[in-house]
Amino acid sequence: MNKVILMGRLTRDPEVRYSQSANPVAVARYGLAVRKQYVKQGESEVDFFNITAFGKIAENASKYLHKGDMVSIVGRLQTSSWDDNGTKRTSIEIIIEEQHFITTKRNSDSQDASSSSVATTAGEWPPSTMEEDDDLPF
Length: 138
Fold this sequence. Notes:
Elements: E1 4-10, E2 15-18, E3 26-40, E4 43-54, H1 55-64, E5 70-84, E6 87-103, H2 105-110, H3 113-116
């Protein structure tokens, strides 16, 4: 099984390009910074990941996501290897299968992020607002 679930903030705006095929497919690339759960000597550590999205997920990322926005993603790891002037290079990226928009930097600046977070899949953008409902069975 190859499954990755991460939540973090974009380190740069998504960069979108289109494939050169008969039916062009959008390809978006961006960075994701994920804070580790533990704190070391008063400072938390951060891991950085390269993210790649295709199709509608890529198009929605380019329209609605910006540096600093918080997202959660579900995807898979993919490794690539190549020779760079005699030096073997390897990279690991995460290919997105699902993308959920949690908060935008604009929202978190104006409201507390925990109270303003909205999770949606890329196909459901823009999100519908949910009201509190006392009739829910949970």
